[in-house]
Amino acid sequence: MRTVRDLEELREIIAGWRAEGARVALVPTMGALHAGHMALIETARRGGTKVVASIFVNPRQFGPNEDLSRYPRREAADARLLTEHGCDLLWAPGVETMYPDGFATSIAVSGISDGLDGAARPGHFDGVATVVAKLFNQVRPDVACFGEKDFQQLAVIRRLVIDLDIGVEIVGVPTQRDDDGLALSSRNIYLDDGERVRAVALPRALGIAARAIGRGEDVGAALADAEATLTTAGFAVDYVELVDAESLAPNPAADRPRRLLAAARMGTTRLIDNIPVE
Question: So which residues are the catalytic ones?
């Protein structure tokens, strides 16, 4: 696997692949890679596709009081993991490449980014949309893979691609989980031992609520029970909401695909999760 930091070198390599008739897949990440990211790499590799993984801790998607300065950075270990899983190229640009002096453009995907994490983290999805659009222009992939754990992010990127006529197929990969059900996340390393044990209340509460809603029980009561369970476990709850799985609109009809999403803080660590409601 090659590690590339220069944009012209990146484009030369990809042009060579194209000349050989290869398809190109992109897996955008912020590093601190784990098995969830490797599931994205495995999905991207299907059909002999050349795989580019990017690592860039994007300052524009962090709020002023969030964890940009302490977000885990371990490029050497990440590169070894990518190599072991058959990634072809690591694109690791610096801030000066992504946001050079005079950079003045921001992309906002309104509506679908307004509620949920968009409300809890103002400006976050503008930063996501801007950096993903740049990555698409730099790599020019045929396909890009994103995890369903960041479900609102996935919806924002799908809307971005449709609205701006970007010729990239967006593939959502199911959430990868630890043995006890907790969704894999780079931020899980912030949890101490006691917090890690209590954090499993998040997927369990969502599972109980989703099954209750699927049986036709009262949605408000199911959401309230889930929030109470999380509070009892030691979480400070940002939201527990049932939304339309495509538009993320609240109060979806029962005959529409639905998704149950939650965000909550365990100590100083903010965790998110979601599951479909059958």
Answer: 37
